[in-house]
Amino acid sequence: MQRIGVFVCWCGSNIASTVDVKKVAEVLKAEPGVVISENYQYMCSENGQALIRNAIKEHSLTGIVVCSCSPRMHEATFRRTAESAGLNPYMVEIANIREQCSWIHKDMEEATEKAIILGRSAIAKLKLNAPLTSGESAVVKRALVIGGGIAGIQSALDIAEAGFEVDIVETSPTIGGNMAKLDKTFPTLDCAACILTPKMVDCAQNEKIDILTYSEVESVKGFVGNFKVQIRKKARFVDEKKCTGCGECMQKCPSKKGLNDFNMGLNTRPAIYIPFAQAIPNVAVIDPEQCLKLKNGKCGLCAMKCNVNAIDYTQKDEIIEREYGAIVVATGYKPISLENFNEYGYSQYKDVVTSLELERLMNAAGPSEGHLVRPSDHKEPKVITFIQCVGSRDTSGCGKPYCSKICCMYTAKHAMLIREKYPDTEVHVFYIDVRTPGKNYDEFFRRAVEQYGVDYVKGMVGKVYEENGKLMVQGADLINNEQVVIPSDLVVLAAAIEPSPTVRKIATMVTASIDTNNFLTEAHAKLRPVESPTAGIFLSGVCQGPKDIPETVSQASACAAKVIGLLAKDKLKCNASVAHSDETLCSGCSVCANVCPYGAITYVDKEFRLGGGKTELRRVASVNPAVCQGCGACTVTCPSGAMDLKGFTTGQIMAEVDAICKR
Amino acid sequence: MKFTYYPGCTLRTKAKQLDIYGRKSLEALGVDFEEVKEWQCCGAVYPISRDEVATKLSAVRTLNSAKVEGEGKLLTLCSACHHVLKRVNGDMKNDENIRFKANNYLALEEEYAGETDVIHYLELLRDYVGFDNIKRAVKNPINKKVGAYYGCLLLRPSKELAFDSPENPTIIEDFIKAIGGTPVIYGMRNECCGAYVSATNKEIAVKKSVKVTDDAMGHGAELLVTACPLCMYNLTENGNKKVPVYYFTELLAEALGVKE
């Protein structure tokens, strides 16, 4: 007979205000097998844990039930408590009377009754628990970083700095991401390229870092410490090792009408191109949709001009397989498509541009070499109107419900830079609210208003239309309570940002959870902000939520610290709740092996005694406990009931159900 | 397919051309239609209060007539009628409270629950006849620069009317191209004409309509087309009086060679 201790937590008032905790403890004390039942204000506190430890020793408890918050929150805590008092950690059961009871009920009587039932259910399960021990698995000392923007670059550099190998997989032909497209960065106005490109070079020169550009993650298998990843290295039709980045091919290419993605499509590029001067790797790539040689076999000029014979029209996609201990998702963002915002005339008027397009228009390496001109007629704009919150904080369903966080600051930056460089230009900004929390941020915004005389208009814009060659921006001025129409030469839209479209696919591959806006979910919003709930998957940058460069870099380094913490371990304690097969029942049908996502099940031929000196050779399933993750897929598919999950046996689950149903 | 045609009061009084040329063109295009028997007022203005039922009843009668007498395809022409009928139909389909009360009032043989499709004449041209077929049927192409004037009733609220993009619509421009004209895109084409405010504050209506007509002319429009009798009134009475305004059906009849 077990000697069970029950510990009911108040969680301050979180549980105690809806559940009569004293009554729960009292009623559960009468359950057969329970020798002690206590309640305490904060069971997870040092005093609460001491109470549990003392009770275990004093009453020689064989198992404990903690009625408290979700096991996601403190199961590990209470297992450690039990272990320190000499109890097997798997002799601990949690009855979740907070998330599944007190938080969702209002009526005290009903909630108390439910808490008692949940407690009984946990006791019923505990009676069938058996002590479990964890196995160990080795950790592959290499990290994968998906995405080569500033987030991925910073995470990779920090991981490499600690001495671990890192691969960066980037879909575009160069690393650098969105930050490489920016002109200046707030709040210090240093040039983005000047601070980013040295980091890109560091990545390229670091012998611990392998950069795989123009590549995509194809599949991910395995689990924390042992991921097996397939990477598709797309054919760039240029030998990366031979190409010197001289650019001769770009000069000679006759097919020059491709839209230049790096310049946000504001100008064109040849079919063979290097995205920008500081690209890493500084190697050309051929756009197969545009290349005449690849499309119809006629041309081949670039191959003729290349001094190092780097061009290879026969190159094929290549699949690379590698193993990693940890995966960092750093897939970044893109501005939203503006098709739902026709009132701003983005699709109708060339001189209505997005803020990211403006970055290129102002950048010395941009299409106008840093001379700010209108895309339509290349004339200098004299009146520029900015519209903020285009698709951000939108409740109509056309845009995004969240604040994109970076727009207030970059709009103030743009306004200030324009007034500085072109003092004759009139600059207006329409805004809902100006949100500039952050070190030196509000001071920065105020400088735009007070020192640079930028005209901030509180209100939204209803329409942008063209009249006599001017873009008429019609909006509300809420402070003066009037409708205003501002004839402008250039209109700049601060489009909301959203996670990169590839993130859904990546999240599915690594089984990381994702929220309604496609941002990756953190393991805990406050306490584990850089980890995914899936072990071994880490989050870096905007893929987790909107953030600016300083915040992204901080998060990328935090993420790297978590990865280093994992890779520094030689062995990981495996989950003790693993599947095992009852060989007397197993028929060797292979159904379980087919559903196992981790490849943990193999088959062995084993000799069984039949009695009378006879033996039989049978094929039976065998689970590798170091590989099994305890998902339970095999236990429910096994037709003969031979598979069971330790700690969650069919018998234990049925006992829980019975306890709930029994009145 | 047979359409049940609902003209509405204005089309028999001030907006006769909209109706007459509309019907002539349908005949020329071989569209089978029949007028709703003993039709009543559409309700004129869609009541905004959520629990208003009585003022929606006449619209429900018309919608039900199309379901019972015809094939459940109600063809509208006046923008205001279309707006009211389409939105009331949406209520009958989606709002349990309105559906329950309206059916209680009307005591129809069979309950009406929004089964009728409300189709504006322009939608019929686009979705049933097809602009390409109209192009083929044109005998006298309208070789002019034509500005489409949408107004508000056909486009908004866009989720309920589901007619075209409320900010950058194309249906009337596509229609203009089909009858051989050159569409003129101008900013004020979906702005307010002044609507009923003309009755109480003419100054505002004049300001609004002048802005529309000036903007259209500024972009080179030689004439304007509309589907709405109220827009027609405002643009002609309160506009700049320099640009002629036609109902789109009149231009269609002319292009098809069935005018007069």
**Corresponding CATH architecture of the largest domain in chain B:** 3-Layer(aba) Sandwich
Treating each run of at least 4 consecutive H or I residues as one helix, how many helices of chain A?
Answer: 18
| Spatial strand order of the main sheet of chain B | 2-1-3-4
Tell me the number of strands of chain B. Answer: 8
**Helical segment count of chain B:** 12
Mean pLDDT of chain B: 95
CATH class of the largest domain in chain B, please? Alpha Beta
Shape of chain B: globular
- Beta strand % of chain B: 5-15%
The named CATH superfamily of the largest domain in chain A: FAD/NAD(P)-binding domain
Secondary-structure-based class of chain A equals alpha/beta
Characterize this entry briefly.
With 663 residues, chain A is α/β, with parallel strands linked by helices. In chain A, 45% of the residues are buried. Chain B is of the alpha/beta class.
Describe this structure as you would to a colleague:
Chain A is of the alpha/beta class and 663 residues long. Chain A has 5 domains: 4-126, 3-Layer(aba) Sandwich (Rossmann fold); 142-234 and 317-332 and 500-567, FAD/NAD(P)-binding domain; 248-305, no CATH class; 334-498, FAD/NAD(P)-binding domain, CATH 3.50.50; 579-646, Alpha-Beta Plaits. Chain A has 18 helices and 34 strands. In chain A, the strands form 12 sheets. Chain A has a 5-stranded parallel beta sheet with strand order 10-7-6-18-29. Chain A has a 5-stranded parallel beta sheet with strand order 20-27-21-22-23. The mean pLDDT of chain A is 95. In chain B, the strands form 2 sheets. A 4-stranded parallel beta sheet of chain B has the order 2-1-3-4. Chain B folds into 2 domains: 2-122, Glutathione S-transferase Yfyf (Class Pi), Chain A, domain 2; 131-256, 3-Layer(aba) Sandwich (Rossmann fold), CATH 3.40.50.11810. The model of chain B has no long low-confidence stretch (mean pLDDT 95). Chain B contains 12 helices and 8 strands. In chain B, strand 7, helix 11 (229-237) and strand 8 (245-247) form a beta-alpha-beta unit. Chain B is globular. Chain B has helices at 16-29, 57-69, 79-94, 96-106, 121-129, 131-137, 158-161, 171-178, 197-200, 202-218, 229-237, 248-256, and strands at residues 2-6, 32-35, 73-76, 117-120, 145-148, 182-184, 223-226, 245-247. With 260 residues, chain B is α/β, with parallel strands linked by helices. Classes of the chains: A alpha/beta (663), B alpha/beta (260).
